[in-house]
Design a protein that fits this description.
Pfam families: ABC_tran. By secondary structure, this protein is an alpha/beta fold. The protein is built from 14 helices and 13 strands. The strands form 3 sheets. The chain has a 6-stranded mixed β-sheet with strand order 6-7-8-3-9-10, with helices on both faces. Strands 2-1-4-5 form a 4-stranded antiparallel β-sheet, with helices on one face. Helix 7 packs parallel to helix 8. The protein is globular. The structure holds adenosine-5'-diphosphate and magnesium ion.
Length: about 300
């Protein structure tokens, strides 16, 4: 368990976090969400002591993090950056195992761990382990960035907007992937985003931040049903305002298969029109800026089910 107790942070006289109190249960998927400048990165980086608080204390398993040996603390906290920056001169398995190597793991164990993790994220180890980073797509590199943080089996994984630079389809795939990894690995995931939709999709618990203060902490259902104040309510409404119920929303979420067939429905058509057409057709082709995608009934059902779950 992680606890922030009255934690404040001042940068050159400016208060970035104001007496933050927060409890993160072990093995939770915990999301910090808020607009730019609200203090998310500061909160996250205080956990592995890249930033020290000006006031207050943070506890990790009932011990103050300033009382941990710094190296040991960081071994227990994996860290995924927004810009993954794999080492260009190391191959993929060496990139994944770099921390394990510095801890003196034998080569055989490092290779086994790297190959195991590649398989977990659907990158065939026989194909990918010895490739160089520039031989991978952006989304594939980001997958490696994620498993690299898991290589030495940390207890907690810190992720700071890891997907915000990706296109919507890669983003959806990587969200599914971190959800799957979280289920499997029994680690605590702490995930920062400015996107409320992403927060609702991923978080078991969500903390909404604004100007260095927590506005509300709860499950997605609690926050949606009982927003604590106008800011939280507005944060949702803005998200929904930019996500009207058109076929584009399905495309944004990554549904459909690429196809070369001609479009039969514009992307700005309402979802109800797609439903009507799918009664008569196996698939409906919609054009995006880059390509055409064929949407089928299972796509529509999955999309609606995810919306329900949100
Ligand atoms: P977020 O990640 O939510 O965008 P940050 O934690 O990065 O927010 O920043 C919170 C506030 O602290 C912002 O007003 C930001 O400008 C300020 N801040 C962050 N880092 C520094 C720094 N190193 N020096 C001065 N001010 C900073
Ligand atoms: Mg940030």
């Amino acid at each position: 368990m992680i606890e922030f107790k009255n934690v404040s942070k001042q940068y050159e006289g400016k208060l970035a976090l104001d007496r933050l109190n927060l409890t993160i249960p072990s093995r939770d998927f915990f999301v910090l969400v808020g607009p730019s400048g609200s203090g998310k990165t500061t909160t996250l980086k205080m956990l592995n002591r890249l930033i020290e608080p000006t006031d207050g204390n943070i506890y990790f398993d009932d011990q103050r993090i300033i009382d941990y040996d710094l190296k040991q603390l960081r071994q227990r906290m994996g860290y995924v950056l927004q810009n993954i920056a794999l080492f260009p001169n190391l191959n993929i398995q060496e990139n994944i195992a770099i921390q394990a190597e510095s801890l003196g793991w034998p080569r055989k164990d490092r290779v086994a761990r790297a190959r195991h993790l590649l398989a977990q994220v659907d990158l065939d180890p026989d194909q990918y382990a010895t490739r160089m980073p520039n031989e991978l797509s952006g989304g594939e590199q980001q997958r490696v960035g994620i498993i690299r943080a898991l290589a030495i089996k940390p207890q907690v994984v810190l992720m700071d907007e890891p997907f915000s630079a990706l296109d919507p389809i890669s983003r959806k795939q990587l969200q599914d992937l971190v959800l799957r990894l979280h289920k499997k690995l029994k680690m605590t995931f702490i995930f920062v985003t400015h996107d409320m939709h992403e927060a609702l999709r991923l978080g078991q618990h969500i903390a909404i931040m604004r100007q260095g203060h927590i506005q509300q902490v709860g499950t997605s259902a609690e926050i949606m049903e009982h927003p604590a104040n106008d800011f939280v309510r507005g944060f949702f409404q803005n998200e929904h305002a930019v996500r009207p119920e058109t076929v584009q929303s399905l495309l944004d979420d990554g549904y459909g298969q690429p196809t070369t067939a001609l479009p039969t429905l514009p992307a700005d058509a309402p979802v109800s029109e797609l439903a009507a057409m799918l009664r008569q057709n196996q698939a409906v082709v919609v054009a995006t800026a880059q390509s055409q995608r064929a949407l089928s009934t299972p796509d529509l059902l999955d999309y609606l089910a995810t919306k329900e779950a949100d």
